[in-house]
Design brief:
By secondary structure, the chain is an all-alpha fold. The chain is about 55% helix and about 0% strand. The protein has one domain. The protein is globular and about 60 Å long.
Length: about 120
């Protein structure tokens, strides 16, 4: 019994020191920004969420769900105008994500794409 307890403690200690992936670390930093600007429409408990919005992109849990989840980094760059253009989101306050908050989202998008290079890309119009 003692050996089993020791093994359990060692496994928990090993898990505690495991480094999160670059994508997970970037998401942890960007999560408050997603919560502030995106959650009202793109989480199951969001006040403005609809079945259609969640079917396309659901950020209730991570990794994100919805049939656009694997292309979401590209989409987020476009709708927030990361790299140029005119922002189209958040729907109620276009262009509200800027400065350091926008940089955190951009860093997540970069880390997400780096982690998922070669994954099949699904497009929907």
């Amino acid at each position: 019994m003692r050996t089993l307890a020791l093994v359990a403690v060692l496994l928990m200690a090993r898990a505690a020191v495991a480094e999160p992936s670059a994508e997970q670390a970037a998401y942890a930093k960007a999560k408050p920004v997603f919560a502030k600007y995106c959650a009202s429409c793109h989480t199951k408990d969001g006040a403005k969420a609809t079945a259609k919005k969640l079917d396309h992109f659901d950020m209730t849990t991570y990794p994100f769900g919805g049939h656009h989840a694997m292309t979401m980094a590209t989409t987020i760059r476009k709708v927030l105008a990361i790299g140029g253009g005119k922002p189209t989101m958040p729907a109620n306050k276009k262009g509200a994500v800027k400065g350091d908050e926008l940089a955190l989202i951009a860093a997540w998008a970069d880390a997400f794409e780096a982690a998922h290079k070669g994954d099949s890309q699904h497009h929907h119009h």
